[in-house]
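Recall that a protein's primary structure is simply its ordered list of amino acids. Everything else, from secondary elements to tertiary packing, is in principle encoded there. The following example makes that idea concrete.
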Amino acid sequence: MKKIAAGLAVMLLAVTIFQPSDGYAKKTSVAEIDKQLKQLQKEVQEAKAQQEKAASQTQEAQHYKNKTNLNLQYVLQQVDQVKGKMTEISTQISDTEQSLNVTATELDKAEARVTSREEVLGSRVRLMYTDGAVSYLDVLLSSTSFADFLDRADSLKMIVDQDQELLVQHKLDKQTVIEKKQELEGQYAQAKQLYTSLEQQRSLLKEKEAEKQELIAFYDKQIQESDDLSEEQDEKLVKLASERSALETQKDKIKAEEAARRAAAAKAEAARRAAAAAKKAAAAASKGSSSSSSSSSETGYSGGDGPFLLPVGSARISSSYGPRTHPITGERGKVHTGVDFAVPQGTSIHAADSGTVIVAEWYSGYGYCVIIDHGGGVWTLYGHIRKGGIRVSSGDKVNRGDVIAESGSTGNSTGPHLHFEVRIDGKTVNPMPYL
């Protein structure tokens, strides 16, 4: 929408300024055209200021985008690390749960064994309490000799001691299983707590990741808007340059008509005053016309077979017109709007045809650039001129084959060459059929 609005505004301005009728040329004075030229120059300055602002915004947004990308990569690494730790803790929790199940089974078995043996020992203790010394006395009195009596007494003591030791060991076994269970439950609780903490950390990192992605999208939008603005200003600058050229042409025409009228009036006055003076004036005019005719001859620079001269002669073409992979950005399918001639730094660049220079300065990605208006909506563009290599100025009239600049590598360029374009009504076309 911005481009359409800008284009309509420029078109309306052009319609307002220019009327292709002789009557309008007669009504418009040189002073009015100068005023319009001054207004155009102001608009050119504003467009350039907007272009510089857009370039600055693009550079700033790209800087912060790169910085945010680095931060995003760091966050993603942290996310991967936390995910790895969570996997380890999850495995640890699973193993601990299995160990707890095994320990619970062992504890149940140990408790069953202790209970069973406690019942046996309890029965024996109850029997001893019931029979008391009679039982022991019966055993001892049943001895056949004193030696048998001593053996029976030792055996009874051993049985009692073994029962007591067995009871103590079972209690220790049960206590060991309980302690092991408590330890595993502590490890399980600690692992669950750590897993919960890691999960919270992962959620925070995911929020940071989403935040960085939103920032990158925001900077991408800023870069796109700045690029669109820069492109709009490029188009506007070219249109303003074309309008300026048309005004200059109209101004020259008015001046020429006024000069012609003054000359005719002077000639008529001289004729009335004296025939001799008229003859003398006619001879001077004839001599001036002859001199002008001889001085208007074009240079002898040669070119190809098309209507335009080759701007740098028969140089090698390093990149043709049409879609290609951009040598700097790597973008595929980007249309190359002209033809690149591979020539050394400082090679003379010639005007492809006669016309009026409408741009002779730095021009966005073209670097130092010259644009010539050949009339009828036909322009030629010469880009990547070296610094200080422009030999013409805006508004200059150039002849076919005139040296207008020297080749270089300014702007978006990977090496010395000439970028040459042909534009019809502001749109680029393949230059080759014209050369």
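The two ends are 37 Å apart (CA to CA). The first strand starts at residue 316 and ends at 319.
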